[in-house]
Amino acid sequence: MIRHTDWSDDYKNLDLKGGKINFIIEDDEDMIEIFYDDGMLIDIGKPTVCDYYCIIVVSSNDAKGWNNPIAQIDVQHKKDLVSKIQDTIDKFR
Asked: CA–CA separation, 79 vs 59, rounded Å?
């Protein structure tokens, strides 16, 4: 028997360190957003113009935060994405 899994299942065991995760299904670029009460956002997506995934960390989800991101981590292979997201959470939280 083949078990169907939701694509988001791979990310449900992340230790968010108090963050709230949002899975985006209808957007071609954004995949996951992790929000924190202090305004920090970790945004994970695969821009349509790129062949890699991006993890972007901003201090706030507004123009000020997006104009000056704290970090951008490029991930070449989807198989590495979960561990890179966890590394990013651990580094910035």
From this structure: 27
